[in-house]
User: Fold this.
Amino acid sequence: MTELVLRGPDATLVGTVTGSGPPAVLLHAGGERRRVWEPVARTLEGAGFASIAYDQRGHGDSDGHGADELPSYASDVVRIVETADAAPVLVGASLGGLAAILALQDAGLEARVAGLVLVDVVPDPPPDSTRRFLQDTAGTLAQRRLVPDILDRSATLRAITGGLRLPVLLVRGGGTSPLTDADVERFVELVPHARLATVERSGHLIARDAPVELAGHLIEHLQDAQVRRRRIQRFLDDAHAADTAHPGGTLLAHLHRTGDTLERWSAPAWVVDAARVHAAYGTDGFPHPMPGADPQLLTAVVGARSEQLVARYGSCSRRESYPTFLTDAPVLVDRRTGRKTPLDAIDLRAFVELTAANEIDVFTHSPELAAAHGADVAALFRRWLPLFGDSARTAVEKWARAT
Assistant:
């Protein structure tokens, strides 16, 4: 864990960064502190994800003016997102969720966020029941001017939420939650693409009552295909992949076609994600690394396992590595250092399927390269057929016969 301190003109925010990998920004409820997220953050870290939890202004170690106005909290969300290595999932409990929604009013911020999780909060809480709940459970918090400020913004928050195009998850508490079935039904009508989850053995403060179960729902959302795709797309946009020439068009189109091919071949998600950024470090055949690509950034974009595959793919000496793949001791030989890395069966399959998907796409979209090298590569892939999974083997064999 590392401490994060953001000093601004009207607030100093103090937070904690835990783990490495695709990030989640954890926004606590009113009256709480960032430490409420610690069990959630540990669980996320164990699953290969990073988290940024901070004390919202006027809470815990963070100071700041404007703590009775929701826009101040929303501006803090924007500042925190800017510290993330990759497009994060915003996770907001109660006040934190409302701050996240208001921050997403900025279309530019939405483009930098991979997904949203609302924890026991909807954008338009009924005023009377909200006040009663706060009076019964939150003491002096119910008397703060922040409460009417939020309630007065319900129409705005509802409009923002209804316009969101990013993946959304609503996690609802159990019997003592203030959310009613009517609230949830209204939310589903507003955001038809949202997913729902219920943590039955918790009340409103799910991070406190059932942190491990909540973390499980967050992990599922972080692993969602659309969330992963948005996170990767943000990286590719920043790397100007759409402006980089590649045989048959642009690098962006090639990367996504390669990932789509591996999806059709039923490759694991970590292989598909690696495929969508496989040229990040440059390769033996395309020695042009993407701007800013480094292990820390790429781990935040696709996770450690995918980053490892990308690094191996980029460093591979094809001339020295390929002859070992059908032996009892397949190795990857680094084209820069000569270092040899043994490959187990899973890693070898991932590597050869990524190689095949990449080369087939290049030859399909570049007749010149196909004429010059297609026959030799087809012969190589025919020798590799025992290494592929069933779906990939069928597709590669069909391509090789036609080449």
